[in-house]
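for the writeup, i need someone to sanity check this before i put it in the appendix. the sequnce is what the collaborator sent (i think, or maybe the updated version? ugh). structure was predicted straight from it, no edits. if anything looks off just tell me and ill rerun, i have time this weekend
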Amino acid sequence: MASFYILTFLLCIIVYVWYYVRKALSYWSDRNIPVLKAKFPLGSLGEVGKKHFGNVIGETYLKLKGKGLLAGFYMLLSPVVVPLDLDFIKDILIKDFQYFADRKIFYNEKDDPLSAHLVAIRGEKWRRFRQQLTPTFTSGKMKMMFPLVIGQAKNLQKFIERHISESAMEFKNVCIRFTADVIGISAFGLECRALLDEDSEILKIGKHFFSFNTFMKQVKFFFTIVCEDWARKLGLRFNHPELEEFFMRVIKETVKQREAGIIDRNDFMKHLLEIKNSPKEDGVLSNLTFNELAAQAFIIFFAGFETSSTTMEFTLSNLALHPEIQERARQEVRDVMKKYNGELTYEAVQELIYLRQCIDETLRIFCPAVALFRQCVENYKVPNTDLIIEKGTQVLVPVMGILMDPDIYPNPHVFDPDRFTSENINSRHPMAYLPFGDGPRNCIGKRFALIQVTVGLAYILNHFKFTMNSKTKLPLEIDPTDIPIRVKGGAWFNVVKLE
């Protein structure tokens, strides 16, 4: 008899779980919203690992676009909105931003204080930080920091010259060293010396932070998105204690030196300290705590560290594969520098129009921001429909899918910088190009990111010619086993110094 009750109990559990899963995975079909086939337990993520996360979301857009304003998607068992219409995307990012003001990116301020940065935080705290930090990235501030970028670009040139005798150079490593040095000196006056020291501590820390190519790290990543409350209760954190200890130590030393007047530099840290110590309009000191300051410096560093180096690597790869485009970009650099007495000034960078088109086209084909994460903060009625997007529902804007849409960009796999002439840009929908997002929650560091990438590429083009080495796997592919986008197998170049 006891075994009968046990079997009955187990059967009831199985039936309940079956019913719960079936109900969860019919959320979108019950609302007559198009959705690709999803399976337990991963939902729509079943192909992740075989395909990059961004490609999986992009395929939902490419296969279902034209069937309505939005498609359904499942992050494990949680329903997610994938907008299919560019006007609707504009509503989400700009017109109706108040309904989608938050990002569903996990942070744990208590156990992992560095995770509570501008990219992740929400609500009124985000609004305050955004308002305070926006003046840090004005063109005037960029111009003040420009000499710091030039100094590291000269070190980049010397680094390549020292290693040019090697049979092949893996440029992800080179680009990471350059961006680490640029962000280090620009963010908080830290001499990372990544281009000089093979064992630079910041390189080891940075590589650990951006390594998601293990099964457990990817499970943790998706679990924190789907089960955010549980992740906080369990005290989960993204940042390794070693990384936190290193970063907090560096920030404390820097703040101490700055406030004692030992060092004064026109960098991000100076502006963060001005925010921390400046009075508000009512005379009350800003309540930017040390942990909050450290978290903002942290994201400034690591956001630029990875995405900028990736953009440089993929742009160099495209230029190596298209020597005629490389030569055109090089000639532009030399012509512009000639106008400025052989120097690359802040004003000269603004005139590198074709090189910027090469960068823009690279960001279209290989975009580090594969999707834009938003969260519905209040029930929202989708325009011209009866559908309500419920509070708490996540929205994934399929950036990678849009950028590879042949109806927007004919022959999307072809590298063609002329897609980004001013005439062609103006002919497209403003939401057709979103590598930096749009609206109030766009990438605050866009201007600085483009400056450091443009300067680094200009110095390389002016002094070196590069072709693709046979060690590079062609055609270029994104590694499907990682969350940040990377060249599968690495990008290897043959480099020749120019007179």
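The radius of gyration is 24 Å. Strands lie at 70-75, 78-83, 169-170, 372-375, 380-381, 388-389, 394-397, 464-468, 492-497.
thx in advance!!
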